[in-house]
Task: inverse folding
């Protein structure tokens, strides 16, 4: 089915028969034991693929090309169980050929086929005259994939663009056409598809035009300063950027170019490019020459700046003044990319007039005439690649003209440049001392990342009858120089208040404050898997155990994470100090190293961890500050509330017996069992090993070893069940070193008391502070 025509007439007759027969019949196999030879012929192709399935249902169609009026035969072949999804797919192929021909030049072949295949490497894959499509249960998604893969006939196939060297010339231009196709055929389509009736889209402010899918995907990398240039070899991209830059940014960039040149001029230029370079493998230089010659425009801003750099577009509308019957718009170019910009009048939230201007550096004033009932003016919104829609609009009347109306929005959402969004969520929480708490979270974390983020979560306890909760505020400074030492610097503070003890319904509380600054190092390239970070913080704890104490815990840490897809590694060095309320203090250092090794196709891991810690000075006597072989627990031993700086989440942080006392964190010595002798006020060293069993169950084996300054060498071993890695894990010790077994026996702890679990709740959605939430 890849040929321009069947050289085997009987096979063509057979295919026609299959396309005309009753589709309720599912067995299309010829009843014959003979072999047959099928010949296909095609000219001007640089690749070949052939697919077969004896159960396929077959449909045949035809589409008339818009310019030459020549007719092209179309085919779809699909599995019987895909019938409900594929039944209209012949129209998807027809429409794709029509619109791509209309905009870029007529399809030169006589047939095109889409087949339903067991594709696992993405949604679809293109070949000359044919595409294979992966499984999907959504008609709109199927059309999107068929249309996209059919579109590759122009850029991958006919033009022969080199995706390895210039991926944007294939995937990028094709994704632009894909976006244009959806907007043309489905003008009401939104970011999640065609389900306009779902009220949740309005409630979560997600009923945005489909084109915003491409824009916000680009922002995902660009706002984190992790994007890469559009003109870049495919092998040099990160997996994320191959999607957000090659596909998405390129699509929006070509939309920007089309809107600036005008649809008629742009289409004429792209058709000239197609006719000039089909079957000839053009380069970016060839595309530029055709576009500039056809339009008469200097496109150096596009081909030299936008393509070759990561410099974003950001035009800020500083002020709007009425002057002699027109508007005087003062605009600043904040990045220096001299891209064209558009000015728009807004009447009742509808664009009434749009005018394009050439780009500039610095600041410039434009005179712009708008209809009398204009109430807002915009720069670049929806028509361009402008990275910040929040500074593109100003109202003509009222106070704070540059600030959009406040919109209270429930739950997470996507940034809306026309609204000042305040997000909120109802929250219920529980710990063993405050018991049930109800409240709300107010935050601004949304997609894409914001430089300034905040979270305030007040919670009222019905047991202790007081107000508790958490708060977080931080600002990220990004370096504009990709050769600088630091990629970003984050400055912020966290705060929270909860009960940490309860006697006879009398709750004792703690307050924790943590100002911090993080330095994230730049990488030599975005594909570098090593991430380096330095963190400075001071944890201030005001705690109450009948008497109040105010303690300070300054800390300097360096962390390295190596995000290898199969064998990730991490290393953390910490220098901790304490200045306590009783005028004592300590300083200590530690190093924590971890290696994971994926050893089979089921993703099973061998995890090796090593830890060493040493006090440099130590004036304290309380056991809560000692190094521990069994990690951070609640009231693990003799009132040793080991999470002294309240970093961790404990549902019952001061419990000594019962289920809540068995929660722990795998830090310090990392033992999975209670270890009353594995503590030290000088030094400790430990080694932890976990091996997942090579079975389709989350079970494995563990063993731990530790030695300390008291010459106490201990070990344990047992089995684990990892329900959610690093989040919910259960450990059952089965054996111990002799000295540890004796200490456990003396403590009176039963076998059940020794079972321990990890409960480490991560950030939930945009509430990023919840990863440190400590009830």
Result:
């Amino acid at each position: 089915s890849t040929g321009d025509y069947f050289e085997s007439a009987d096979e063509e007759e057979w295919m026609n028969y299959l396309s005309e027969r009753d589709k309720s019949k599912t067995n299309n196999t010829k009843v014959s034991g003979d072999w047959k030879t099928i010949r296909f012929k095609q000219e001007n192709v640089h690749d070949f693929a052939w697919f077969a399935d004896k159960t396929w249902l077959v449909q045949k169609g035809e589409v008339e090309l818009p310019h030459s009026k020549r007719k092209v035969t179309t085919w779809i072949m699909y599995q019987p169980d895909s019938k409900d999804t594929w039944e209209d797919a012949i129209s998807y192929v027809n429409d794709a050929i029509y619109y791509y021909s209309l905009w870029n030049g007529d399809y030169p072949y006589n047939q095109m086929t889409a087949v339903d295949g067991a594709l696992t490497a993405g949604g679809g894959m293109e070949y000359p005259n044919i595409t294979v499509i992966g499984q999907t249960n959504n008609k709109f998604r199927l059309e999107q994939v068929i249309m996209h893969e059919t579109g590759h006939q122009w850029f991958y196939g006919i033009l022969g663009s080199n995706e390895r060297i210039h991926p944007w010339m294939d995937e990028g231009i094709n994704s632009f056409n894909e976006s244009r196709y959806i907007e043309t055929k489905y003008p009401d389509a939104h970011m999640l598809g065609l389900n306009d009736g779902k009220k949740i889209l309005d409630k979560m402010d997600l009923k945005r035009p489909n084109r915003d899918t491409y824009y916000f995907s680009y922002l995902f990398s660009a706002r984190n300063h992790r994007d890469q240039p559009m003109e870049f070899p495919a092998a040099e991209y990160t997996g994320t950027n191959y999607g957000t830059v090659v596909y998405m940014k390129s699509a929006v960039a070509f939309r920007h170019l089309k809107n600036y040149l005008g649809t008629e001029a742009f289409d004429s230029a792209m058709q000239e490019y197609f006719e000039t370079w089909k079957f000839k493998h053009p380069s970016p230089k060839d595309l530029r020459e055709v576009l500039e010659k056809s339009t008469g425009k200097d496109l150096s801003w596009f081909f030299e700046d936008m393509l070759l750099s990561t410099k974003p577009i950001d035009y800020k509308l500083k002020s709007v003044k009425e002057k002699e019957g027109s508007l005087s718009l003062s605009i600043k170019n904040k990045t220096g990319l001299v891209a064209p910009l558009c000015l728009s009048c807004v009447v009742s939230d509808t664009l009434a007039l749009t005018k394009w201007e050439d780009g500039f550096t610095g600041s410039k004033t434009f005179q712009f005439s708008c209809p009398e009932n204009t109430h807002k003016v915009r720069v670049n919104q929806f028509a361009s690649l402008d990275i910040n829609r929040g500074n593109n609009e100003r109202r003509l009347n009222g106070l704070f003209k540059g600030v959009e109306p406040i919109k209270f929005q429930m739950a997470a959402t996507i940034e809306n440049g026309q609204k000042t969004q305040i997000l909120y969520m109802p929250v219920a929480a529980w710990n063993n001392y405050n018991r049930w708490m109800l409240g709300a979270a107010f935050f601004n974390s949304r997609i894409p990342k914001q430089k300034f983020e905040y979270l305030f979560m007040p919670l009222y306890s019905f047991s202790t009858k007081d107000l508790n909760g958490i708060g977080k505020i931080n600002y990220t400074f990004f370096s504009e120089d990709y050769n600088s030492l630091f990629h970003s610097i984050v400055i912020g503070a966290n705060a929270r208040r909860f009960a940490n003890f309860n006697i006879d319904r009398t709750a004792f509380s703690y307050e924790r404050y943590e100002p911090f600054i993080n330095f994230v190092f730049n990488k030599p390239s975005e594909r570098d898997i090593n991430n380096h970070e330095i963190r400075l913080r001071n944890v201030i704890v005001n705690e109450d155990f009948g008497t109040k104490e105010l303690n300070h815990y300054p800390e300097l840490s360096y962390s390295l994470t190596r995000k290898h897809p199969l064998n990730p590694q991490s290393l953390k060095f910490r220098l901790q100090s304490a200045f306590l309320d009783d005028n004592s203090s300590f300083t200590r250092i530690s190093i924590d190293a971890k290696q994971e090794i994926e050893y089979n196709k089921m993703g099973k891991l061998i995890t090796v961890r090593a830890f060493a810690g040493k006090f440099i000075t130590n004036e304290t006597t309380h056991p809560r500050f000692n190094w521990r072989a069994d990690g951070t627990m609640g009231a693990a031993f003799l009132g040793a509330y080991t999470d002294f700086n309240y970093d961790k989440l404990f549902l019952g942080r001061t419990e000594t017996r019962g289920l809540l006392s068995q929660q722990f964190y795998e830090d310090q010595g990392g033992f999975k069992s209670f270890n009353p002798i594995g503590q030290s006020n000088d030094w400790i060293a430990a080694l932890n090993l976990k091996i997942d069993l090579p079975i389709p169950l989350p079970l494995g084996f563990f063993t731990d070893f530790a030695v300390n300054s008291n010459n106490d060498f201990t070990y344990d071993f047992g089995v684990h069940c990892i329900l959610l890695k690093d989040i919910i894990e259960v450990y059952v010790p089965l054996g111990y070193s002799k000295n540890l077994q004796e200490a456990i026996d003396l403590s009176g702890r039963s076998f059940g008391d020794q079972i321990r679990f990890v409960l480490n709740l991560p950030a939930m959605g945009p509430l990023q502070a919840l990863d440190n939430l400590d009830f």
About this structure: DSSP finds 13 helices and 35 strands in the chain. Confidence is low (pLDDT under 50) at residues 763-775.
